[in-house]
């Protein structure tokens, strides 16, 4: 049975379509990534899955049951880590987790052990009695996660859990997601960070303007663009570079400059590396290194949407 | 049920953890009593100057009634002629004049007492005290009159017994009641203000939860929005009960103020007002888009209406047009109920007042429920 089944899901705010005819299914044990730029409609889709927003059209099923008809069942089986912190600042870390787990019917010693377990899981075991208002940003994010997992939901949804935190907390969180998954939870992971999604997700849906424009495993997504190759050339300085001339070379699709690195995406079929290097040398560039990359999700996104994820 | 209790538990814990809340919810009403006793304590020393016009001379019963008035505490009474009455009152030499018509004693004997006319320009604030005692006294005699069915001889026999037994009694009973009652009304006036403020603060938790987004986490759990709001209302009513009980107990026990109304009556009537306060607070929360807006509405609505309704000083001091306006305010009906009961009205005779309070609570609740029902969008509340 699929943990989550979404069929032609649409959300309209007035005339604006935030989620557009979205269909996907997620199986037990997956870490499923929603990848998309800000405003793509990821949070809106998640808010419908968690019954926070009414659905305009389409159906959602959790563990085979329609979430509108079996709202309590659906909610009881989901743990949501919202994009923005949702914790009580005037309660201790333990009280926060205890309270939210209690909403799912846990009481007494079971509640206590699950709450302690959840706090230990996110590395806050020695902060039980500390008030969350005194926590650092990363610690608050971790508490935000603990509040969603203490009741051991079948499906855990994380909406951009790593936004704006230090690298240490980030890798802690990514590792704990993998652990949660190994312990039996199915996970939906939302992000606009390519590397994270690439690192932990088993399958990925790329969302743009409310639509899924591609979905599959990393390999499947990259296969979409195997006709592309990436060439990175490091030079001493890009000041005198004539980008137009590079673009005119047969096969070259895009040219991007980042500091002293020239990134070129080109048709894989056409062997034009010689011409590119000749062009650079002709304009007096001092070449330090040349690399031809495997395509990554960044290139996939760029090819499919014509935009880079970051802007 | 268990869900509701779980939510209530959390709200109570976070509320009581913050000592500022305790100060606000329980400390302030006590400060109110202190203020009331300061304001009214001093005025207790003033005496009421009465003039008495007796057109029913030579009647023992009437003489006794005059005597009864003269021996009331804080009353200075002297016999005057009716022709002097207006001048003495207008010049301020007298606070009020009581006029006994000829046949007054006779009317008592027959059990159908003629009322004593009271002339004053100072309103019930001043005369209420005397008239309430006088009415009680007259009622007693009229009861004797009714029992003997106009039989003058039997009346005199019973009356003579009553005179001896009761005069002493009434003397001890008549302590400084007007002051006590004034303090009570003032205390209740302050209590209403604090109840309204506390109610909005407690309902405001709903808005705060929306602002720190914990509300959405709650709604993503199997708990329904309705359960959540109900739990908030229960906490709110519970806090109101504590406020009322603490205020009444401190007022009666520690400050020795005799309100002139039984405790449980006051408690239940104030509980009715608590319903109004909570319903009003829900309306404010339903319409306010943020904590800021809610506290702005709170300030805009509560203080001015409390002022107009007479929570801060007696409404008799206000122009008549404003007094009329007060009738649109629930605070007025609560205070009016207390005044009536203090003047000796029975519970039956204030049923209309209580009905009006209940209607206020019902109407405000309906508005809140209607508005909550329309706030479906996640970005607005509930
Ligand atoms: N309640 C709302 N009313 C109107 N527009 C909304 C509402 N919520 C989201 N949107 C719009 O829908 C689009 C998708 O938003 P969102 O789902 O938050 O994107 P993401 O999470 O992918 O960054 C955005 O353009 C946003 O402005
Ligand atoms: Mg989002």
TrEMBL record, chain A:
Which keywords describe this protein according to UniProt?
A: ATP-binding, Nucleotide-binding, Transport
Record-annotated ABC transporter domain positions: 4-234
* The keyword Membrane belongs to this UniProt entry's keyword annotation: no
What's the protein called, per UniProt? Answer: ATP-binding cassette domain-containing protein
* Gene source species: Paenibacillus mendelii
Traced from the root, the source organism's taxonomic lineage reads:
Bacteria, Bacillati, Bacillota, Bacilli, Bacillales
Q: Which segments cross the bilayer?
A: none
* Entry keyword annotation includes DNA repair: no
- Show the GO MF annotations: ATP binding
Q: Which PROSITE patterns match?
A: ABC_TRANSPORTER_1 (PS00211), ABC_TRANSPORTER_2 (PS50893)
Automatic annotation (TrEMBL), chain B:
- Segments spanning the bilayer are 21-40, 188-207, 228-252, 264-289, 301-322, 350-370
State the source organism's domain of life: Bacteria
Name the UniProt record assigns to this protein: ABC transporter permease
Q: Which organism is it from?
A: Paenibacillus mendelii
Q: How does it sit in the membrane?
A: Multi-pass membrane protein
Gene3D superfamilies per record: abc type-2 transporter like domain
Q: Where in the cell is it found?
A: Cell membrane
- Main location as per UniProt: membrane
List the Pfam families hit by this protein, alphabetically: ABC2_membrane_3
Q: Which family does it belong to?
A: Belongs to the ABC-2 integral membrane protein family.
Keywords from the UniProt entry:
Cell membrane, Membrane, Transmembrane, Transmembrane helix, Transport
Every copy of the ABC transmembrane type-2 domain together lies at 151-375
* PROSITE patterns on file: ABC_TM2 (PS51012)
């Amino acid at each position: 049975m699929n943990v989550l089944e979404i069929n032609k899901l649409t959300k309209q705010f007035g005339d604006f379509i935030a989620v557009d005819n979205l269909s996907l299914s997620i199986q037990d044990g997956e870490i499923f990534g929603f990848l998309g730029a800000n405003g793509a409609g990821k949070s809106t889709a998640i808010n419908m899955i968690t019954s926070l927003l009414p659905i305009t059209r389409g159906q959602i099923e959790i563990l085979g049951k329609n979430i509108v008809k079996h709202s309590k069942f659906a909610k009881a089986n989901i743990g949501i880590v919202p994009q923005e912190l949702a914790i009580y600042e005037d309660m201790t870390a333990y009280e926060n987790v205890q309270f939210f787990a209690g909403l799912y019917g846990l009481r007494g010693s079971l509640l206590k052990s699950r709450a302690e377990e959840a706090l230990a899981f996110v590395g806050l075991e020695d902060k039980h009695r500390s008030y969350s208002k005194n926590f650092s940003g990363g610690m608050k994010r971790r508490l935000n996660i603990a509040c969603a997992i203490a009741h051991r939901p079948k499906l855990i949804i994380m909406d951009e859990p790593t936004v704006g935190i230090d690298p240490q907390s980030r890798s802690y969180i990514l590792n704990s997601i993998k652990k949660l998954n190994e312990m039996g939870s199915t996970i939906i992971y939302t992000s606009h960070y390519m590397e994270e999604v690439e690192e932990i997700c088993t399958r990925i849906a790329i969302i743009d303007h409310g639509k899924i424009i591609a979905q599959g495993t990393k390999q499947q997504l990259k296969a979409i663009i195997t006709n592309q190759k990436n060439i990175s050339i490091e030079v001493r300085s890009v000041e005198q570079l004539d980008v137009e001339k590079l673009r005119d070379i047969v096969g070259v699709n895009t040219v991007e400059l980042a500091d002293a690195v020239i990134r070129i995406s080109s048709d894989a079929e056409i062997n034009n590396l010689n011409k590119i290097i000749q062009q650079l040398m002709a304009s007096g560039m001092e070449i330090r290194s040349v690399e031809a990359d495997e395509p990554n999700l960044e290139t996939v996104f760029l090819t499919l949407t014509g935009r880079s994820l970051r802007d | 049920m268990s869900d509701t209790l779980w939510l209530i538990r959390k709200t109570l814990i976070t509320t009581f953890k913050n000592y500022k809340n305790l100060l606000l919810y329980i400390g302030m009403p006590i400060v109110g009593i202190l203020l009331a006793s300061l304001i009214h304590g001093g005025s207790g020393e003033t005496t009421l100057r009465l003039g008495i016009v007796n057109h029913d001379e030579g009647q023992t019963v009437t003489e006794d009634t005059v005597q009864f008035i003269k021996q009331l505490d804080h009353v200075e009474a002297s016999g005057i002629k009716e022709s002097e009455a207006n001048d003495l009152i207008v010049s301020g030499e007298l606070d009020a004049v009581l006029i006994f018509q000829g046949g007054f004693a006779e009317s008592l004997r027959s059990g159908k007492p003629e009322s004593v006319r009271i002339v004053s320009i100072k309103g019930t604030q001043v005369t209420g005290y005397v008239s309430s005692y006088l009415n009680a006294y007259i009622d007693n005699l009229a009861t004797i009159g009714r029992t003997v069915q106009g039989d003058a001889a039997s009346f005199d026999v019973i009356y003579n017994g009553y005179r001896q037994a009761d005069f002493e009694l009434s003397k001890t009973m008549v302590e400084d009641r007007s002051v006590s009652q004034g303090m009570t009304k003032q205390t209740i006036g302050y209590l209403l203000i604090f109840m309204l403020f506390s109610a909005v603060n407690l309902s405001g938790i709903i808005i705060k939860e929306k602002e720190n987004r914990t509300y959405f986490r709650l709604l993503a759990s199997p708990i329904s929005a309705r359960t959540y709001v109900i739990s908030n209302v229960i906490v709110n009513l519970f806090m109101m009960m504590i406020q009322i009980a603490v205020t009444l107990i401190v007022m009666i026990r520690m400050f020795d103020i005799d309100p002139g109304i039984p405790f449980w009556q006051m408690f239940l009537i104030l509980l009715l007002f608590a319903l109004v306060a909570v319903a009003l607070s829900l309306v404010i929360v339903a319409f306010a888009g943020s904590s800021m807006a809610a506290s702005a509405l709170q300030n805009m609505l509560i203080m001015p209406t409390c002022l107009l309704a007479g929570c801060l000083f007696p409404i008799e001091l206000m122009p008549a047009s404003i007094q009329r306006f007060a009738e649109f305010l629930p605070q007025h009906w609560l205070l009016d109920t207390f005044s009536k009961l203090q003047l000796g009205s029975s519970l039956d005779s204030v049923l209309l007042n209580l009905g009006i309070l209940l209607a206020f609570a019902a109407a405000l609740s309906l508005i809140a429920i209607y508005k909550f029902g329309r706030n479906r969008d996640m970005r607005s509340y509930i």
